[in-house]
Structure to design on (145 residues):
């Protein structure tokens, strides 16, 4: 049976690029999550950063980020609205770790720069998508006399 009209709107190039961007960030979040898990179970760092050997701040941060990053990866991959929010929580946790408390967690300026870059790119994409949506809406309107 053939439908009269297609209910699926055609995606613009900007929509496709945004989805690709979100999925690339999702892959990196999954990678970060796996790194934290491998650290906590003793698979990486020659077992010196196992959960039972860490101090309390690293236990809290490591366990939290080991859970939050894979959840953010799932949300970003599925392009649902809560994915970027969870990513922001994870990136905020890393910003607190390496920016506010470098004496406890050490300094990692690369993570700070990458997270800031992702946040800026996300904001740019959202503004461009908003402008495109507004332009599409204005071009469809018809003023009747």
């Amino acid at each position: 049976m053939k439908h009269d009209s297609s209910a699926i709107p055609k995606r613009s190039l900007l929509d496709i690029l945004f989805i690709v961007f979100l999925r690339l960030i999702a892959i990196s979040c999954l990678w970060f999550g796996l790194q934290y898990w491998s650290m906590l179970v003793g698979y990486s760092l020659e077992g010196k950063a196992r959960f039972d050997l860490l101090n309390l701040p690293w236990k809290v941060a490591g366990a939290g980020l080991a859970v939050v990053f894979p959840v953010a990866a799932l949300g970003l991959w599925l392009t649902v609205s809560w994915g970027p929010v969870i990513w922001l929580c994870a990136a905020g946790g890393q910003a607190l770790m390496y920016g506010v408390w470098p004496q406890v967690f050490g300094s990692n300026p690369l993570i700070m720069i990458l997270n800031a870059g992702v946040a800026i790119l996300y904001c740019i994409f959202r503004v461009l998508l908003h402008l495109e949506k507004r332009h599409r809406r204005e071009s469809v309107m018809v003023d009747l006399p």
User: Anything to note?
Assistant: The mean pLDDT is 92. The helical segments are 13-41, 56-77, 82-100, 102-105, 109-140. The radius of gyration is 21 Å. The first helix runs from residue 13 to 41.
